[in-house]
Amino acid sequence: MSTLWQSTLGKSDDKGIEKLRNSFLDFRKKVEALVKNIETELPGLTIHDITHIDSLWEVSDQIIGERLYLNPMEAYVLGGAFLLHDAAHVSVAYEGGFEALKEKDEWKDLISLKFNNIEPEHGSAEEKKAIFEIVRQLHAHQARTLIKRSWKSEASNSYYFLISDEEIRNYYSELIGEIAESHHWSSKKVYDTFLERRVNAPAFFDNNTWEVDALKIAFILRTADAAHIDSRRAPIYSYSFLSPEGISREHWHFQNKLGRATLTNNNFLRISSGSSFTENERNSWWLAFDTAKMINTELHDAYNYLSEAGREPFEARKVLAVDTPSNFSKYVKAEGWEPEDISIHVSNLPRLISTLGGKALYGEKKHVGIRELIQNGLDAIFAARKLGYLEDNEGAININLQKIENGDWSITISDNGLGMSRYVLSDILLDFGKSLWSCDDVRYEHPKLSQTGFSSIGQFGIGFYSVFMLSNKVSVITNRYRSKTDESGTHWKLTFPNGLNERPFISQPTEDERIKRHGTKVSFTIDDESFQKLLIVKKKQKYNFIEDIFEIAPSPLDEDDESNEKYIHKGFSNLIKWIFPSCEINITLSYNGIKETILTADDWKTISDEELLSRIHNGNEAKKLYPLKYNGEVVGRLRIVEAPYYYVTERPSAVVSFKGARAGQIYGLQGICRSISNNEKAERNDALPDYPMECWKDWAYQIVKSEPLLLTTYLLRLHALIPDEDLRVWYIGHERCYLSDIKSLLREQDEIIVVNGSIDYEDDDDIKPSEFEGSLILNDNVILAPIRQSHYSQNNNITLDDIMSKFNMPEIKYYDLLEATMRDVWGEFTEDDEGYRVVGYVNGTEITRHTSIYKKMD
């Protein structure tokens, strides 16, 4: 029996203590029945039954030391928290059992985030995994409600509570439940919540000195629970029939080898193993080491917070020998291998981040820093809309552009989205490669968001760092839409005083810096030369090594200040429009005291074709675009390019956008098309418009009806989408025609000459090339059957042909169509392959080509 128990509830010479002890033992008996099924209902968990709960008294001895630290009433509250803290790991702890958890928002968020919003099949391994995860998430909070719940006794037809004594239950159950829940809080939240929480002795007890200090009790619970990692939690007999897997298996392995944590004379908690960890068990050893470091952190936090609060700290201050793996292995033994920390690490993290988050990933595309910051703001606004903190038509990005005294520029990008908590600002944003939207933290930061169908633009957790391609002076000021329970406010500021070369720091923004509404603003300075380069977009042509420079601004700078101001304003506006050609949220630009909306949400659907093409390609083009529609909504405005191409990158491409931002391109088209899916690559250049075939068929039909004389090359490509349409892709002599025109010719002719494809100049012709062009006259019975040209892309560039290939459309065999038409008009016919035949003349000179001769049979 533990010293803590013996010195408090174990005493037998006091009626008050006896009352508490009897109440507690009755409480314990009920919880024992409750938790006995944990290992069968949640197989894989280390032991969480009554033996674990009872062991916490003994572990507490080793943490607080051999001294009188609690009075009997505090021991009762602590014991109640021990009993409750893991009791909600069984189905009977929830109204309706585990199945009822599927109606909770937490379950819906989990299924959306980790199971692609598809409910696991009942009884499947996936469902068990989901239940395990959701119970681990909810059990602490459920413990708080469990103590107030009653159960009906079938034998007596009456109701009973976990605490039978009504006076004790009414006075202490709320506190016990809250302390039990707190074992899953952060240490800071525990401190903030219980710092002033002292509960006076109840009037129904004779002893009026038994005050309950909730802060001490809460820290005993969390440290004792963390430190109970010995073999009692992973007995061999249970392991043999539970057969835990994955990380649970490693937990069982290492805990099964450990003895009881023991307090040393110099205030260390010693953790040691009875047998060594072999090379095959090294993963378990490392998990033991990581767990010991976690316990060390808990002890360190407890010491600091209790000392700061003026409470007597625990005797155990640290875990022995967790400073290095080598030292820890003196107590938790390894055999046949050396526990040295030789894991992969980065010695120069700032350089890695600046490389992978900047030039190595994005090249010389300086505008990427602007794009990524705006995209982060768009994500925050979309999320705020999904959670109801903004209406569907609310939310905007504001860009403030200002020239400062030394000639540099200050750029601030603001949004009125969700804002960030201190935790997100310090732990998520600063964790290179971690995106809030795709990690588990989103379920706790923004409950219900995952189940709304929200999908973010950001997904790799590196985009923010592209700002350091532009500046070394960056600050982030945020105001979260509401405060978190474990944080003291909603306003935070993160400052990078020297880019990635110096540690950033968090502070409270000044009153003038604070954002009045929820949202975030990122500010940075940029030198004038770099700013001017932002106004130019460079596009390198890989095939012919030509570098085209498209100037976004209308004209170069000159000595006229007014002209310069117009240049800057229009140039920067055009840059934003070029990056976000189909933005779904308003973007405003503030410059020289004037605030102007430069992009209106979804205006790309209604502006003129000329303006849209100019926005995309930075030039003055006037070509007709045709709407691509999906479920009645315009999702693209496109046309097919009007020049033959073989190397696709020599021609302009259509922009593919995702949530308004450039995210890919399709060669062989012009215009813009939204993508349903996000990029798969961090460069954000591989998004595709994955729309059903019917959408593309309708789009192609519009074009051929509006422009029947579009170049044959492109009508042939469109024909693959609408094979049942009769298009002007045939020739009778020099005249383009429909297949129906050939049908009419067949009614008048008994013989036709067919050439496959066009007739071009050949070296064997008895004329000069200059004579051939424009002077060839074909015979009236010569028919040119169309051939669809192949196109060659480079560097895996996507073309319209690639889009169409996904539909597995059958190839149109034009010769088969022609022969079917002849059969319909002539009936039987003969085909002669007579080799070369005269097909026309150039200034009286015969032109011969390989032909097929078709003759009507009598």
Automatic annotation (TrEMBL):
<dbReference type="InterPro" id="IPR001404">
    <property type="entry name" value="Hsp90_fam"/>
</dbReference>
<comment type="similarity">
    <text>Belongs to the heat shock protein 90 family.</text>
</comment>
<dbReference type="InterPro" id="IPR056471">
    <property type="entry name" value="HD-CE"/>
</dbReference>
<dbReference type="Pfam" id="PF13589">
    <property type="entry name" value="HATPase_c_3"/>
</dbReference>
<dbReference type="GO" id="GO:0016887">
    <property type="term" value="F:ATP hydrolysis activity"/>
</dbReference>
<feature type="domain" description="HD-CE">
    <location>
        <begin position="42"/>
        <end position="300"/>
    </location>
</feature>
<dbReference type="GO" id="GO:0005524">
    <property type="term" value="F:ATP binding"/>
</dbReference>
<keyword id="KW-0143">Chaperone</keyword>
<dbReference type="InterPro" id="IPR036890">
    <property type="entry name" value="HATPase_C_sf"/>
</dbReference>
<keyword id="KW-0547">Nucleotide-binding</keyword>
<dbReference type="GO" id="GO:0140662">
    <property type="term" value="F:ATP-dependent protein folding chaperone"/>
</dbReference>
<dbReference type="Pfam" id="PF24391">
    <property type="entry name" value="HD-CE"/>
</dbReference>
<dbReference type="GO" id="GO:0051082">
    <property type="term" value="F:unfolded protein binding"/>
</dbReference>
<protein>
    <recommendedName>
        <fullName>HD-CE domain-containing protein</fullName>
    </recommendedName>
</protein>
<keyword id="KW-0067">ATP-binding</keyword>
<dbReference type="InterPro" id="IPR020575">
    <property type="entry name" value="Hsp90_N"/>
</dbReference>
